[in-house]
Specification:
It is a single chain. The chain is α+β, with helices and mostly antiparallel strands and 491 residues long. 36% of the residues lie in helices and 23% in strands. The chain has 18 helices and 26 strands. Strands 1, 2, 3, 6, 13, 14 and 15 form a seven-stranded mixed sheet that branches. Strand 16 and strand 17 form a beta hairpin. Helix 13 crosses helix 18.
């Protein structure tokens, strides 16, 4: 890594990674030796309360529809850049930028948005200039489970779940973008007709920074149910069925490490970025975590965040009806297997609040009161509709004789049961998708800072568990991918 540039006058070169996640926007800057220089974060609920989100999301009355106002993301970009400037970091030294975005989420640009992106006024904040730029003002998110009908129709259209998996790497999932797009087309046809371009959350961030439409990369595009993961092209059989002119609205997909373009002059004039700074194609949070963890074959990563995810690398795509296979964001000819669990940190926090008065310290004390295996008590806790396995919201407890019970006798039983139940489910489903003998586990995400939870993970999988020195692997991975893209562009 020493080959990355130090300027002739001795000034450093920086690389900026952004992570537009469910609950926050993080920015991480690394230098030419991949050492972290700065990190700032904007929490949507705390820092942008005017949008009325709960955990970064609007939870609709049907219990299944989950959205975030797209303009919230724009406000967060304003704020995170202002905080970077306030931190004292020299943004003029940033050579390349890339971003991570919560997978599957979508942004619907209105007709004329491209022209307005090119003409941003540096005397004004971004959020003051985006009125009317979105044909659908609320972005559907990965937490959404309102498209069951569209999923069934998609599988029927292509000849079944297995064929869909062979094409796109996954069966039809409610959160996957093409099902959300079809729902918009069916329920809001006028809004769809007024849509000029559809971005993922990741490519939306890149689009803002280049002042034009950035492509969807192969890795994040793999989570849409419309990209052929082998040919890396949109599947006409699906796109033409889902909505009119969809391929045109999506644009051509691209390599994750390719450059979307140079940074828009707005950011140079307002924040001091170098006009030569490259914007590298953005990718999903899970692919960026792969980059941030510097994974090799035989490793698996488990991200303990709002959702819990597990992924491992493979040289050949072997998609199953369980889990997902995505294109690798770093190695163009490789693939990543992924399992996603909707009930992650928010469900652990729900049990923490009920059993430990909202305190992680008390939660850990209760964990210490019970042995591994929880004396035979087992629980599966679904605060939200679950996707792996598919299950309605509800808490399911079983005593030592495997008999269902309404409640456990002690709060400590619930505390251990929620963590062990989540990891036992991961172990079972990872074996089904082909991740049978992991050599080691890298843990990331907010809960990876809790050593008690990591010990249970090590116990369940019977392998060593390691963490990054900082838990935000998605934003760090985006910064690493900025380095990767810059190097590929110039070397």
């Amino acid at each position: 890594m020493a080959q990355y540039p130090i300027k002739p006058d001795g000034r450093p070169t920086y690389f900026l990674g952004l992570d537009c996640s469910t609950q926050s926007l993080k920015a991480t800057i690394v230098d030419s030796r991949l050492q972290q220089v700065a990190e700032v974060v904007v929490n949507y609920d705390r820092d942008l309360p005017q949008f009325g989100t709960k955990d970064g999301v609007h939870h609709h009355s049907d219990g299944r529809t989950k959205t975030t106002p797209t303009i919230l993301f724009v406000n967060a970009i304003d704020l995170v850049l202002e905080r970077l400037v306030a931190s004292g970091v020299a943004l003029k030294e940033v050579a390349a930028i890339s971003a991570s975005g919560q997978q599957h989420g979508s942004v619907f640009w209105a007709k004329g948005a491209a022209d307005r992106l090119k003409a941003l006024d540096a005397s004004r904040r971004l959020s003051e200039q985006f009125d009317g730029l979105f044909s659908v003002p609320d972005s559907p998110l990965w937490m959404d489970s309102s498209t069951s009908r569209q999923c069934k129709d998609l599988e029927d259209h292509v000849g079944g779940a297995r064929r869909l998996t062979e094409l796109t790497g996954s069966i039809a999932y409610e959160r996957f973008t093409v099902n959300q797009i079809r729902k918009v087309y069916q329920e809001k046809p006028q809004a769809y007709a007024e849509t000029e371009r559809i971005s993922l959350v990741s490519s939306f961030v890149s689009s803002v920074f280049i002042g034009g439409y950035a492509p969807i990369d192969f890795a994040d595009g793999s989570g849409m149910n419309v990209l052929d993961i082998n040919s890396k092209t949109w599947v006409p059989e699906i796109s033409d069925w889902a909505a009119p002119d969809l391929r045109s609205k999506l644009g051509e997909p691209a390599l994750a490490h390719a450059a979307a373009g140079k940074i828009n002059s707005y950011f140079c004039d307002k924040y001091g970025f170098d006009p030569e700074a490259l914007v590298i194609n953005s990718s999903g949070d899970n692919p960026c975590s792969v980059a941030g963890m510097c994974m090799a074959v035989g490793d698996i990563t488990i991200s303990l965040g709002t959702s819990d995810t597990m992924f491992g690398l493979m040289g050949k795509a072997s998609p199953q009806l369980e889990g997902h296979v995505f294109c690798d964001p770093v190695h163009p000819d490789a693939f990543m297997a992924l399992l996603c669990y909707k009930n992650g940190s928010l469900t652990r926090e729900h049990v923490r609040d009920a059993a430990a008065d909202g305190s992680w310290d008390k939660f850990n004390e209760l964990l210490d009161l019970t042995p591994p295996g929880n004396n035979g008590k087992l629980g599966f806790y679904f605060k939200e509709f679950e996707i792996t396995p598919r299950a309605d919201a509800g808490f399911h407890r079983f005593d030592a004789n495997s008999a269902p019970v309404a409640a456990f006798p002690d709060k400590a039983d619930d505390v251990r049961a929620v963590v062990e139940g989540q990891f036992l489910s991961m172990l079972h489903h990872s074996r089904q998708i082909g991740i049978e003998h992991p050599q080691q586990i890298f843990a990331t995400g907010g809960a990876s800072s809790n050593s008690r939870i990591l010990q249970i993970l090590a116990d369940v999988f019977n392998v060593s568990v390691f963490t990054l020195t900082q838990p935000n692997s998605a934003s760090l991975g985006a910064a690493y991918r900025a380095v990767h893209g810059w190097h590929n562009q110039y070397h």
